[in-house]
Amino acid sequence: MIGTTSSPLLPSFFRPNAVKVARALLGAVLVRRLDDGTRLSGRIVETESYTGHDDLASHGRVRKTPRNLPMWGAPGHAYVYLCHGIYWLLNVVAEPQESPAAVLIRALEPLEGLDRMIAHRGKKSSLSDLTRGPGRLSMALAVTGAHNTLSLTDPAGGLWIEKGIHYPDDQVITAPRVGMGKNVSEPWYSIPWRFCVRDHPFVSDPRPKLTAQE
Question: How confident is the model over 139-156, as pLDDT tens digits?
Fold first, then answer.
């Protein structure tokens, strides 16, 4: 049965370069335990990596601010921020402390607690769109700013990442990150730091071109 035992990823899993962590997270399971004990979970099928000072698309590219402070913390902690004043986006901090890097969790394959996820998303939510995209998955799992800085390696906090399955390279595709904006110049606009499971229905839009990871 899914989720009968918890095997959280260790902080050391998140210590390498954020690009490597983003790839390695494909197949891992994000788990949310609600206050009533209900367990919600989904398999990670899409991620994006954001490195530190050298990445013009990263929140940590300049200096510490009240918003990006979690990125400078210990690897394996949550960095949750509000996007467009509407959607909470869940990131996991990567690389050693004081290196401001993180991985955005972009999409999940829902595994447990689908009824509760649908309720969180609202009556108009369809199963196919339930956790397809970073804003949707946070809403479905009831992840909010209250989870910012939480350790994602400790189930005691009610939100963590477990060991899952491994997707071989021929099942993984890479693509440029989504929504870079006009202020991000080359090569950061086109660098392929978005990682997706090939042909997976829960990969978010825009669907990446089907080019296998080299």
Answer: 999 999 999 999 999 999
CATH code, domain carrying 17: 3.10.300.10
Query: Per the domain annotation, does 74 fall within a domain?
Result: yes
Q: What is the pLDDT of residues 154-192, one digit of tens each?
A: 999 999 999 999 999 999 999 988 876 555 556 667 789
Q: Rounded CA gap, 47 and 113, in Å?
A: 22
The residue range of the domain holding 76 is 11-169
How many structural domains comprise the chain? 1
The torsion of the CA quartet 148, 117, 120, 5, rounded to 10 degrees, works out to: -40
- Within 8 A by CB and 6+ apart from 138, the residues are 80, 87, 88, 89, 90, 144
